[in-house]
Model the fold of this input.
Amino acid sequence: MGRAPCCEKSGLKKGPWTPEEDEKLIAYIKKHGQGNWRTLPKNAGLARCGKSCRLRWTNYLRPDIKRGRFSFEEEETIIQLHSILGNKWSAIAARLPGRTDNEIKNYWNTHIRKRLLRMGIDPVTHAPRLDVLDLSALLKPAAAYYPTQADLDTLRAFEPLANYPDLLRLAASTLLAGSPAIGDQQQQQQQLLPWLLQAQMAQAAAMVAPPPQQQAEHNQFMQQQQAAVAACQMPDLVHASPTSVAQQLAAAAQQQQHQHQPQDMAAAACHSMQPPTGYVVDSQQLDVPALMQMVQQPDASNLQQWSSTVTSSNNNNVGSGVSTPSSSPVAGLNSTATTTTYGGASASSSDAAALFNLQLSDLLDVSDYM
DNA sequence: AAACTTCTCAACCGCTTGCAT
DNA sequence: TATGCAAGCGGTTGAGAAGTT
Done:
């Protein structure tokens, strides 16, 4: 495949366009249409390469381009689409009328990306980033906080969970989302702190000493994992389930003991893949106290498997909890509502989508739009 | 007011894709 | 099938604007 040599030609102007050049380009395209970009500059009397002309036209001069700030709806749409499409700027731009891929790319890199990072969300995976969580920022409203003896005892009690950083990340996500039972901010911080400290400690510990896993068990798990993925009909991985993750963990352990069918295991795994990968989920949250209780039990061997399941869920970026508002241009992207059946129960993704309603408006700094 | 830093975004670079021959 | 070219795409750059010291 050869490369276009057009820009290599000498004597062609580069850099910012002058109003005169813009006028020439607009006048020519209005009269003759876009046509062949290679021959256009010569015909239009421009000392530019065709590539430069095309870029100028598509990114700046096109009459249907919408100028000005991105609206909140546009920004939400970009985030949603990015969580699905990644850095496919042209694909994202195709769903945002009047916006160019270049404009969206710039806006992402200068605004949205930084905002997500500030929120502790990885802009690539759209998952929480506990590794960069700034505890001091979270605790800023409080004058000072020193861990109590009870907090330190809590941390020691949860040391077994050090081997399951993903469950910890999940737990922290839930806590960061805020519990409706906790109204007072200071009380919330005091409840949150031990968990965040523990999560960070556990992650550090996990990096030093990853849990041993026998190959046969690993292979078995991988098979179950694949079955789970199939059962979940990715990427429409959204289900309604009122049960807590801890309950699912217990159920899964029970299933494992009784050597149930792989598809049952897959269904259970599918349940466990619900938790948020990046955003606040308001209707299903990790039952942290139950998980804490479970971790403290002597035999927590099944946790490894479910921790890994969560890991896989996050890595695949499935069921990311991204909402699809009907007013958004992204609506219809997953227009086929799938129904996944497991364990005798079924839930359509469209119904479940409401249960995983993304509360971006709470997360984003609304003051930017004022 | 000047110097410096940070931010924004238009434009460019180079690679990939798709099509014609 | 191989090759060449045009168009498209995503990453990067750098000049100017805006903000800070």
